[in-house]
Amino acid sequence: MSSHSYEVALFGDFFAQDLPAVLNRITLHSQSAHQMHAREIVFEPYDAQTQREAGQEPVVLRGRKELLEPDARWLLYSYLKPESARVHPEATVRPWATCQVVGNALNFASALGYIRRSQIYKRGYVFRRGPLVIQMFQQEQVDLKTHKPIPAHADTLWEVEVKTAAPVRNTPETPLSKYVDAVLEVQLLMKGLLDLRRQDV
């Protein structure tokens, strides 16, 4: 039995013209919904290139901050390589660690030996459904001069992530299969409107 905590997830995307239909169906099957505008930064170890050349996959660190909540703190999290499709053919299951950061997350990541690789803003909606969170968003690029987000073009593709709201452990009481079933339920609910699938990232 592994001591890891995991995220169980499915992913999809759709064209902007389908937004009202997708929004209606997800809202109908969720307990709550609110708007989301988040800043996300990807950090990698300063020696990431050396690690890759040595055949190792560097552990990437991600920072996320919700901009619509005045007291929101930075959340730093890291995913390890997804479990094999042979083990979990229906959903992406990957070891997941998170920590909340008081103060400046960028300095904290830097102190751990990480450098900033990229950043984006995500604007859209967040839904809660039982143990799951469903994020639906358009990516916004960053203005290099002001470092502020540039509103997404109306035709920008919408992305959807259906995933466990918090890291889950694989225990006899809460087997991972329970969470896989929960994301597959959403996949079924969205059938014909949104193709949700597993991805190896």
Automatic annotation (TrEMBL):
Gene3D superfamilies: Hypothetical Protein Pfu-838710-001. The keyword Nucleus applies. GO terms for cellular component: core mediator complex; mediator complex. GO terms for biological process: regulation of transcription by RNA polymerase II; termination of RNA polymerase II transcription. It is found in: Nucleus. It comes from the Eukaryota. Belongs to the Mediator complex subunit 18 family. Component of the Mediator complex, a coactivator involved in the regulated transcription of nearly all RNA polymerase II-dependent genes. Mediator functions as a bridge to convey information from gene-specific regulatory proteins to the basal RNA polymerase II transcription machinery. Mediator is recruited to promoters by direct interactions with regulatory proteins and serves as a scaffold for the assembly of a functional preinitiation complex with RNA polymerase II and the general transcription factors. Component of the Mediator complex. This is Mediator of RNA polymerase II transcription subunit 18.
